[in-house]
Design goal:
Layout lengths: L3 E5 L11 H15 L3 E7 L17 E2 L4 E5 L2 E12 L4 E7 L14 H21 L6 E7 L4 H9 L9 E5 L7 E3 L10 H8 E2 L2 E3 H8 L2 E4 L2 H6 L10 H6 L4 E3 L27 H14 L8 E8 L5 H13 L3 E8 L1 H13 L4 E4 L4 H10 L2 E4 L9 H7 L3 E5 L2 H6 L15 E3 L4 H16 L1 H13 L5 H13 L3
Parallel strand pairs: 1-2, 1-7, 2-6, 7-8, 8-12, 12-13, 14-15, 14-17, 15-16, 17-18, 18-19
Antiparallel strand pairs: 3-5, 4-5, 5-6, 9-11, 10-11
Bound molecules: adenosine-5'-diphosphate.
Length: 485
């Protein structure tokens, strides 16, 4: 029987997703199955945030026959688990339902640490049942993703259970979110004071990610460049010293994308289809996008952006340069939601430049696909970017990313150096921290769009680049092998 690798994550697309984390848990499991692992995933079952349409509805979930009760801070909590064959038959997913945890949205509650402590305990309980089962292979690795699962790593190491001693991998998808709580929360999360002082204490607060980094057997981040950056004060979010110290167990493995779900030749959200050999459908997608979002018809270059609206993503810089982009004859369409001041600025920009700037405040998967396909350039002015998927989707759709040279953007975009000698370039990278750097890069991008030869060459490079999950899965397998799989 194949060895089991158990992934634990707060997001798994298409069931529940707020960003790239959900996409990773959609794309990586099938690729790990292909390299010979039995991939099982443990994730919450939220309220309205969880959608099961892809399985044909919630009826496809089988209630787990094993009753589960966990204790947390002396309280007994009933947990309901549902099992389904997911990922087109490549994985099994266990959905954990419990009071407090199963609310309307994924995150954003004052008691999130407590909610994910319940989830962590439930994950360890499920893992223990699997480890004792004779009908499945041995549980070889517990692979936890981001701070929400930090406590699962801790409980695996600390609790007396049949999976104690199973190696744990902890993946940092975004170091900016560490799960920081008041120190007084420790007892409510079953973190004793010794463990608090040795592992979780961070300048007087309780830092869940810090504890997981210390106890995990391996740490990964989602790109090699980010794996280096997080060891520096600039990108380390206060944990750079610790990460320098732990450098021997840190690896950077670049994310892939689901090239079946994201394929302009067959994407159900698009009004026309195309591929690298025949790009005609892309022009139709661009016209339809302009019409959809209210941009003026014509041949102005279209700059797209699909993003959480945050300073991390540099959306303030995009707002700063929007006026100048329009003056330069380009159009801008932004889809996203996030920080209120950025939403207000984008609304204002749309009002100030009707027909040239369009803003949709929404989380809209279909429109996201239509922007990736219909835009000429894709703006990604991130201050930091652990990996970034949006630039890979845009390249897959022949849309040239204009991105700040940081993190995974460096690892996935082959930068243009000379418009007269495109070579293998797939996008534009700029180094500056300032909005001016973005403005210059976008002007350059607009020049590329107006140079038909260079544009065509870059589009073909971008669309032919290999962003599939296979090579990442092989890297994860190597890592698991180091841990005895
Ligand atoms: P992050 O995970 O930091 O938000 P990524 O680039 O790794 O950034 O992944 C973002 C994912 O979320 C992409 O799939 C992107 O298309 C999607 N996304 C972000 N905002 C929206 C939105 N408003 N509507 C639809 N999809 C969105």
């Amino acid at each position: 029987m194949k060895p089991i690798v158990l992934h634990v994550a707060a997001e798994v697309s298409p069931f529940h997703k707020s960003g790239g984390l959900g996409d990773v848990l959609a794309g990586l499991p099938p690729a790990l199955d292909e390299v010979g692992l039995d991939v099982r995933i443990i994730t919450p079952r939220y309220g309205e945030a969880s959608k099961f349409a892809s399985l044909g509805g919630a009826d496809a979930l089988k209630p787990w026959p094993v009753p589960l009760q966990i204790t947390l801070a002396g309280q007994t909590i009933d947990v309901r688990v549902y099992e389904a064959r997911t990922h087109r038959g490549h994985a099994t997913t266990y959905f954990v339902e419990a009071d407090h945890l199963s609310r309307g949205t994924i995150y954003g509650y004052g008691d999130d640490a407590f909610r994910f402590a319940i989830f962590g305990k439930a994950a360890v309980a499920i893992a223990s049942v699997l480890a004792r089962s004779r009908n499945v292979g041995p549980v070889k690795v517990l692979h936890a993703h981001d701070w929400h699962t930090a406590l699962a790593v801790w409980y695996v190491k600390a609790l007396a259970s049949s999976i104690r001693g199973v190696p744990a991998v902890f993946t940092i998808h975004n170091l900016a979110f560490q799960g920081v709580e008041r120190a007084s929360s420790a007892p409510y999360l079953d973190i004793g004071w010794d463990a608090f002082h040795e592992l979780f204490e961070d300048h007087g607060t309780l830092n869940l990610m810090k504890g997981a980094l210390l106890v995990a057997d391996r740490i990964t981040t989602v790109s090699p460049t980010y794996a280096h950056e997080i060891r520096t004060a600039r990108y380390g979010h206060g944990l750079d010293g610790l990460l320098r110290w732990l450098a021997g167990k840190v690896r950077g493995i670049t994310n892939g994308i689901d090239v079946h779900a994201w394929d302009p030749a067959s994407d159900k959200h698009l009004p026309a289809h195309y591929d690298a050999d025949d790009l005609e459908g892309k022009a139709a997608c661009r016209d339809a996008l302009r019409f959809d979002v209210g941009l003026r018809a014509g041949d102005a270059p279209v700059i797209g952006c699909v993003s959480r609206l945050t300073r991390q993503k540099g959306i303030d810089h995009l707002c700063d340069v929007a006026h100048e982009i329009v003056r330069h004859g380009a159009q801008l369409v932004v889809l996203g939601e996030g920080e209120e001041d950025l939403e207000h600025r984008l609304h204002w920009l749309q009002t100030a430049h009707p027909g040239s700037i369009a803003f949709r405040r929404a989380f809209d998967e279909a429109l996201a696909h239509r922007i990736y396909a219909g835009a000429d350039l894709f703006a990604m002015p991130s201050r930091f970017e652990p990996c970034g998927l949006a630039q890979m989707y845009s390249m897959r759709y022949g849309t040239i990313p204009v991105a700040r040279a940081t993190g995974g953007l460096v690892d996935t975009v082959a930068p243009l150096h000379n418009i007269h000698d495109v070579g293998g370039a797939t996008g534009l990278l700029y180094a500056s921290d300032h909005a001016d750097g973005l403005a210059d890069a976008l002007h350059w991008g607009i020049d590329v769009v107006r140079d038909r030869g260079a544009l065509h060459h870059m589009r073909q490079n971008a669309m032919r680049a290999d962003f599939s999950w296979e090579s990442s899965a092989r890297r994860y397998l190597e890592l698991y092998r180091e841990l005895g799989v």
